[in-house]
Amino acid sequence: MNKAIRFIPLILVIILGVVLYRGLSLNPQSMPSALVGKPMPDFKLTTLLDENKVVTKADLKDDIILINVWATWCVYCKYEFPDLIDIVKKEGITLYGVNSKDDRTTAKQWIDKLGNPYVFSMFDEEGSLGLDMGVYGAPETFVVDHHGIIRKRFAGVINPNTWRVEFKPLLAQLKQERLAEQGK
Amino acid sequence: MMMSKTIKLKTVFGTAIALISYLLISFSSNASPVETFKFKDDITKVRFQTLTKELRCPKCQNQDLADSNAPIAADLRKQIYAQLNQGKSDKEIVDYMVARYGEFVLYRPRVSSLTYVLWFGPAIILFFGAIIVVVILRKRTTKEESSELSSAQQQKLEQLLNADNDSADNLPKENNH
What is the domain range of residue A86? Predict the structure, then answer.
């Protein structure tokens, strides 16, 4: 009994070591969004390309969609653009943009120059939709399911690799969910 | 003449040091962002300061909102300011932030099943620590008591001593303790 007690400190230190060691490999930046599992927030904004056209949540397709937050002040968004265009073409996904806290003219020039991966982009000049979505930078991409529920938030650049790892499995799963519900 | 000169030099030197240290201190305190908010009263001002210190910047995770220069922190400060002016309560503002950025933005996490360890862990560890200390101390005192002789042992000792005294009176006294 006494001998066992003598080993308790050693065991505690080993447990602490394992916990701390695991902490080293965790990425503090990857946080689950508070909005995962909650409905996409309402909004009322103009589109980037047409300042007279007002869009709301009802204008988003009633399907599995992706919403990408971008801006011309965001350096990485420029890298992301060609890949987004490619992925939209290849995978046949529905992608909307949120042009966050940007200048309309500059953003339009970007679209002209780099191409347009989005069905349309909401022009979120004040960043109010961004705030409601819990966005804290760009690029960020959200996956919204066919019930309008946010299922994923991804902070970072989408490229073929992150797409394969982060999005493909989830989209396949969502499609299956939808199929199962239709079958009922 | 000589005397007054050194005193003068000393005061000049002292003032220079004071000035430099003042500048250094004021520069370092200016590292946090400078914004001008006009508050309707002092209570609102204090509430703003408390809220921005209690909420964490989602982008630079080791800074509070008051301290951070990230664009998102500036947005959130403006948001807090606007909501204070709208007459929202502190709880409403904190709930607003938590709904968007998660429990993560709270520097003082709420008590929930996830944070029980955080809240009560130290108290429990302290409690067990105290128990261990008490047990060890008790053991020690009982050992000390056992070094004193029980009455039966005392009797036996005296018997032995007496027997010794009877048989060998010529032995030196100090052996007869």
Answer: 35-183
